[in-house]
């Protein structure tokens, strides 16, 4: 039985992440629920009360506050173990997110890139540091649609996109799933150099998109997997979210190029833009 890592805090987003993980795990995967307690900030309080006493109080509070999630797991009869550790959340998650786990499932607040950085978002550094696939679940997701039956896979001709496609198939083994390949072409007038010079009209851009889709189509055809292909022109993050909603996709899959929060902000990472306000579960894969 493989394992899924589910980092949690006490938020509504984490509750949804647990529901998603339970629906996906069924009787095939064991869950590790990981809660990280951050060190108490005031050294004066620590000196007066003692580190051990403070950690004892924090541990008792954490176990009490985690009860709603434990109730979901117990009611579903899902195999799980609970780990509560002290440290910095994204660092502890990275330590746990090894090849021993099939994927990470965690809640996201869906902050914009800069807001997420300023508010010390845990999901952004987790995406950057994790070597295994990461599912991001927002509070607004529809739990009745968990885990997924329709998958929207965004592709751009890169190795991370092919890795994302392959991972989506692997994580969907044993499930009745249909796939949609989506390439979004940004007009060079809006972002010079992405597809090179020489475009003349919309048909040219669509042709580039169809050419981009072809290698992924050939891969799915060889696997005899049902799919359809789409090419759209415009802003990738916006069209990805809109297409997922129109297609009633239960999962959006993106290949991630591994840029950190600041670098991703400066170059306009599609991953970070898609996370912002996304209501569909996301699967982020690095090659």
Automatic annotation (TrEMBL):
<protein>
    <submittedName>
        <fullName>Nucleotide-binding universal stress protein, UspA family</fullName>
    </submittedName>
</protein>
<comment type="similarity">
    <text>Belongs to the universal stress protein A family.</text>
</comment>
<feature type="domain" description="UspA">
    <location>
        <begin position="2"/>
        <end position="137"/>
    </location>
</feature>
<feature type="domain" description="UspA">
    <location>
        <begin position="149"/>
        <end position="286"/>
    </location>
</feature>
<dbReference type="InterPro" id="IPR014729">
    <property type="entry name" value="Rossmann-like_a/b/a_fold"/>
</dbReference>
<dbReference type="InterPro" id="IPR006016">
    <property type="entry name" value="UspA"/>
</dbReference>
<dbReference type="InterPro" id="IPR006015">
    <property type="entry name" value="Universal_stress_UspA"/>
</dbReference>
<dbReference type="Pfam" id="PF00582">
    <property type="entry name" value="Usp"/>
</dbReference>
């Amino acid at each position: 039985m493989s394992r899924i890592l589910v980092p949690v805090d006490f938020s509504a987003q984490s509750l949804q992440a647990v529901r998603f993980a339970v629906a996906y795990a069924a009787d095939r995967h064991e869950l590790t629920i990981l809660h990280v307690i951050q060190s108490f900030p005031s050294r004066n309080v620590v000196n007066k009360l003692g580190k051990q006493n403070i950690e004892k109080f924090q541990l008792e509070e954490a176990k009490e506050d985690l009860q709603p999630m434990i109730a979901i797991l117990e009611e579903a009869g899902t195999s799980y173990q609970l780990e509560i550790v002290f440290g910095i959340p994204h660092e502890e998650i990275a330590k746990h997110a090894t090849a021993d786990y099939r994927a990470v499932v965690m809640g996201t607040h869906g902050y914009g890139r800069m807001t997420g950085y300023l508010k010390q978002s845990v999901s952004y550094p987790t995406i950057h540091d994790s070597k295994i696939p990461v599912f991001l679940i927002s509070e607004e997701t529809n739990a009745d649609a968990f885990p997924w039956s329709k998958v929207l896979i965004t592709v751009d001709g890169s190795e991370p996109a092919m890795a994302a496609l392959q991972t989506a198939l692997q994580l969907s083994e044993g499930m009745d799933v249909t796939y949609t390949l989506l390439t979004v072409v940004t007009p060079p007038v809006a972002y010079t150099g992405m597809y090179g010079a020489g475009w003349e009209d919309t048909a040219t851009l669509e042709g580039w998109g169809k050419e981009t889709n072809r290698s992924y189509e050939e891969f799915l055809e060889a696997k005899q997997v049902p799919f359809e292909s789409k090419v759209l022109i415009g802003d990738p993050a916006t069209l990805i979210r809109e297409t997922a909603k129109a297609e009633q996709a239960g999962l959006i899959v993106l290949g991630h190029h591994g840029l950190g929060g600041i670098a991703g902000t400066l170059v306009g990472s599609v991953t970070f833009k898609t996370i912002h306000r996304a209501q569909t579960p996301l699967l982020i894969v690095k090659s």
